[in-house]
Amino acid sequence: MSGAGGVVLVVVDLQNDFCDASAAARHGSDPRVLAEAAGAAAGVVEQARGAGVEVVFVRFLGDVGHQGPSWRRRDAGLGKRPKCVSGSRGAEFHGVTPAAGERVFTKYACFDAFLAKGFERYLRERGVVRLVVAGVFTDVCVDSTARTAFQKGFEVSVLTDCTTPLHLPEPVVLSFMERVYGARLTTRADPDLWAVYPSTEEEPSQPSMRPAGPAPVTSECTPG
């Protein structure tokens, strides 16, 4: 499946350890909010498939052996146990199963989907220009992925009904993503959900026709 017009649905960390009852108990607001967001994220997967839009899954594996020193130090200080350990039920997808041919990229104890081996290369090879992002959590892995996507030149849409934050107030997180990354905040009910927006790149400026004068005085910064 090629992705409709350069758009893919990226499903982030829709896994049991982040979405089941124990995860809901850690959720800062009404635990039902997490269940609803996870259910909506699973639902938009079927919606994308029906529209002929490619679905790309990103999963997290948090085994101690995958963790860097700073991650292990943080967990020890906060008494956090590793989540989504390889081979565990917690690492399995929640409410959804990748279909034959759908790609799954793995993050090893990190937040950002672009740190998963081959993720960016795959998007480039497929001619993707816009990521529609669903999954958990808005203020952690969804934010990290959207931030890097923006910096690498991809357009980003965040499905606000298919994600929820873990630590920060939702309006704050979403407003930040909209203002800083230019993220388009929308829902799975959007009739233009899978559309590709026209490029906003400016045409190259024409060479100046002014007569040549003395070269301007400039200063340069040289790396020290």
TrEMBL record:
<dbReference type="InterPro" id="IPR036380">
    <property type="entry name" value="Isochorismatase-like_sf"/>
</dbReference>
<keyword id="KW-0378">Hydrolase</keyword>
<dbReference type="InterPro" id="IPR050272">
    <property type="entry name" value="Isochorismatase-like_hydrls"/>
</dbReference>
<feature type="domain" description="Isochorismatase-like">
    <location>
        <begin position="8"/>
        <end position="188"/>
    </location>
</feature>
<protein>
    <submittedName>
        <fullName>Cysteine hydrolase</fullName>
    </submittedName>
</protein>
<dbReference type="InterPro" id="IPR000868">
    <property type="entry name" value="Isochorismatase-like_dom"/>
</dbReference>
<dbReference type="Pfam" id="PF00857">
    <property type="entry name" value="Isochorismatase"/>
</dbReference>
<dbReference type="GO" id="GO:0016787">
    <property type="term" value="F:hydrolase activity"/>
</dbReference>
<feature type="region of interest" description="Disordered">
    <location>
        <begin position="198"/>
        <end position="224"/>
    </location>
</feature>
